[in-house]
Design brief:
The chain has 437 residues and is of the alpha/beta class. It has 18 helices and 15 strands. The chain is globular and about 60 Å long.
């Protein structure tokens, strides 16, 4: 059975970093005998994009969407259902997960929505269709309309327990070389991104973990190294970024990874996300020796009051100690910060400024707090009688702190969030001007 995936095109927007959802689903269903095509609106011209969506031959269409392109998703599904009324349209990704099912089904024309990980449900859907016994209630992680009523399939927790069983993501389908060229143009680097875990056990107030679960699942060190070697040979680069939040979660896996990199004499440069309280001091020399160049930390704030309020589970002393260890071992440090937390004050922002100035830190990026549906902060503040999902479509973590966001968060501060970001970035190290990996 064949499926055509579509990444919606957003006018005047070129995305330099692809999502791993479609590449992983593609490699998994191909492993089970199915075929895949992709119409990638992120990289296609308007003319080419329109030509391709007007000539789809696959019986199944899968659409991956984010929060920022949800309106394009709605428009696309209406077009597809009108042009191809007999085809099955399946939606997934961060976009559908960010809105109530009622809103998605009433504004778009998807037949099915994948609510969690997509590999298992997509493969079962294609396999059942090919065999002529497709039954949506027996395909896990699906939501659909039945006699006009939103219905969930029998199983809603089908996750890949052993990630080593997943084939590597289908980088040819997504056109990895295009993204490498685009990134080199922007940053001067050809950098390969790799995912090594799913799920998260932490309880940050602003995070929605419904898609991947509360239990962390780790790929083995051997699996990660095999993907590195594959990419080094195929894409001629030795620079890697491990984009999952918890790459350093397991000390034993981290040590095994570094030691095997050294044993194999792989001359790689690598970067990763880490928590500031997740690395013991004795690990830094090994990390550096294995090729680590930079660690990216979700610091969020220099105020302990804010850190406690968002249940980050770290302390300001943790942050300072880790930044100092990075500097001591010649490992660059990069911090992500957020503003717009309900109840934050000018004093809290000043604490962040002080932390950045004292560091030592090599790069900074600041975002507005975006309350994802399903996160504890969203659930706490949501009032269906006053909340506007139309406004929510326009919310973002990078462009503007919308008045409706301020209202939802009950945001009353003596210092405007946009001014806070401007001040923080004005104090940021020069390397913060570069695009984050």
């Amino acid at each position: 059975m064949e499926v055509t995936f579509i990444i919606p095109k957003v006018e005047d927007l070129t995305v330099a970093i692809f999502s791993f959802g479609i590449p992983y689903i593609s490699s998994f269903v191909k492993q089970h005998g199915h075929s895949v095509k992709l119409i990638n609106g992120q990289i296609l011209s308007d003319k080419k994009y329109k030509t391709l969506i007007n000539s789809i031959t696959s019986p199944v269409i899968g659409i991956s969407t984010y929060h920022y392109d949800i309106r394009e998703f709605f428009e696309l599904t209406h077009f597809l259902k009108k042009k191809y009324p007999q085809k099955i349209i399946v939606a997934g990704g961060r976009g559908p997960a960010s809105f109530p099912l009622e809103y998605i089904f009433s504004h778009g024309c998807a037949d099915y929505i994948v609510l969690n990980e997509g590999e298992i449900p997509f493969n079962q859907l294609l396999t059942q269709m090919q065999a002529g016994n497709f039954s949506p209630e027996n395909v896990p992680n699906l939501a659909y309309l039945k006699k006009g009523k939103i219905t969930l399939s029998k199983q809603q927790d089908a996750l890949m327990e052993n990630l080593d069983n997943l084939p590597f993501p289908d980088r040819d389908l997504i056109d990895q070389n295009f993204y490498l060229k685009l990134q080199k143009k922007i940053t001067g680097e050809r950098l390969i991104r790799i995912v090594t875990s799913r799920g998260c056990p932490h309880v940050c107030l602003f995070c929605d973990k419904s898609g991947m679960g509360n239990k962390i699942r780790l790929r083995s060190a051997d699996s990660v190294i095999a993907e590195i070697e594959f990419c080094m040979k195929k894409y001629k680069t030795n620079h890697f970024f491990f984009i999952d939040d918890l790459f350093v979660h397991s000390k034993s896996r981290l040590i095994e990874f570094c030691e095997k990199i050294l044993q194999k004499k792989l001359k790689i440069r690598w970067e990763a996300h880490a928590r500031v309280n997740s690395l013991e001091p004795d690990l830094y020399p090994l990390l550096k020796k294995s090729g680590l160049e930079q660690l990216f930390f979700g610091i969020e704030s220099g105020s302990q009051t804010i850190l406690d309020r968002i249940q980050k589970g770290i302390s300001v002393p943790d942050i300072k100690k880790t930044l100092q260890l990075c500097r001591k071992h010649a490992i660059k440090s990069f911090g992500y910060f957020i503003v717009g937390v309900p109840g934050e004050s000018k004093k809290d922002h000043e604490a962040t400024l002080k932390l950045i100035e004292e560091g030592p830190i090599d790069g900074v990026e600041v975002f507005y707090l975006l309350p994802y549906m399903g996160s504890p902060i969203f659930n706490k503040l949501y009032d269906r009688n006053s909340f506007s999902w139309e406004d929510y479509c326009e919310w973002t973590d990078v462009l503007d702190f919308k008045p409706s966001m301020k209202s939802f968060l009950k945001y009353h501060s003596d210092y405007d969030p946009s001014q806070a970001i401007e001040r923080i970035m004005s104090k940021a190290p020069r390397s913060a001007k570069q695009q984050k990996p």
